[in-house]
Amino acid sequence: MSQRKILVALAIHYGGEWDKIYKALIEKKYLPDDVADAYISSLKCNFITILDIDYPEYLKEQRCPPFVLFYYGDISLINDPKKCLGVIGTREPTEIGINQTSKIVSQLNKDIIVVSGLAKGIDAIAHLTSFKTNRRTIAVLGCGIENTYPVDNEELYSKFRKSKFNLIISEYPGMANPEMFHFPARNRLIAAFSSSILVTEAKLQSGTLITASFAVHYDRKVLCLPSNDYGNSGCNALIREGAILVENAEQVNEFYE
Question: Can you give the pLDDT at residue 204?
């Protein structure tokens, strides 16, 4: 059995969970050929493995790079982080946060690829605005590639599935459930795929800050819109810790010129 086949079969068998796949590889607990074949033939999506020549080198340099990425759309969008901007924030945005996110994304340079997590709130606004303004966008899932989650974003998920111009991607195969520990793992990929992360609105206790911490670890820039939600703003806290304050799309575009 080829190493590539082993990887894909194990990724499907263990639901994309990195630690379990790694343990099986170390202990050489491979699946029988017929089982591996059945798993792989059941896939509807495309996939790329860490052994493939077109797997991005920068991903291999990160801690725990995905063994397999399952996707629909244009996989070449993850080739160059210098073209990608992560846009993230709260799942419960204010009207100000919604308007600011939509305005900035709509005014980005046309060659900037918007990366986000297909969550409710800021993520969905970033993706939807990208579709409306004919910008390329990447959705990174914290669940199986075939799983529409959250259900509120079913129409948006469908847009990605039908688009060859954009990309929806996950290290979790099939209908894998959106487990809590999947989202920090998902966030590391949003940070890895992007040269900068823009936080438009966030609370102090927020998964958004996890993505920002990954960005710092990966030597990415963290850009934040300032907030008047004094005492409960994740953006203001990040700015105090060294994130770059930006107020409009023009200032964001400067990092991509």
Answer: 87
* Six token digits for residue 33: 């050929």
pLDDT in tens, 59-108: 999 989 999 999 999 999 999 999 999 999 999 999 999 999 999 999 99
3-state SS assignment for residue 104 = helix
> Could you tell me which of 120, 110, 102 has the C-alpha nearest to residue 165?
110
Domains of the chain: 3-71 (no CATH), 76-256 (3.40.50.450)
CB atoms within 10 A of CB 232: 12
**Rounded to whole angstroms, how far apart are CA atoms 119 and 140?**
9
Report how far residue 113's alpha carbon sits from residue 85's, in angstroms, rounded to the nearest whole number. 6
Q: What is the mean pLDDT of the chain?
A: 96
Show Cβ contacts of residue 216 under 8 Å, excluding neighbours closer than 6 positions. Answer: 222
Residue 177, SS3 per DSSP: coil
CA pair distance 16, 170, nearest whole angstrom:
9
How many helices, marked H, and strands, marked E, lie in the chain?
A: 11, 9
pLDDT tens digits for 4-46?
999 999 999 999 999 999 999 999 999 999 999 999 999 999 9
The label of the residue with tokens 């999506």 reads 45
Amino acid at 156: L
Instruction: List 114's β-bridge partners, or say none.
Output: 85, 137
* Three-state secondary structure call for residue 157: helix
- Alpha-carbon gap, residue 252 to 112, rounded angstroms: 10
Q: Where is 127: in which H helix or E strand?
A: helix 122-132
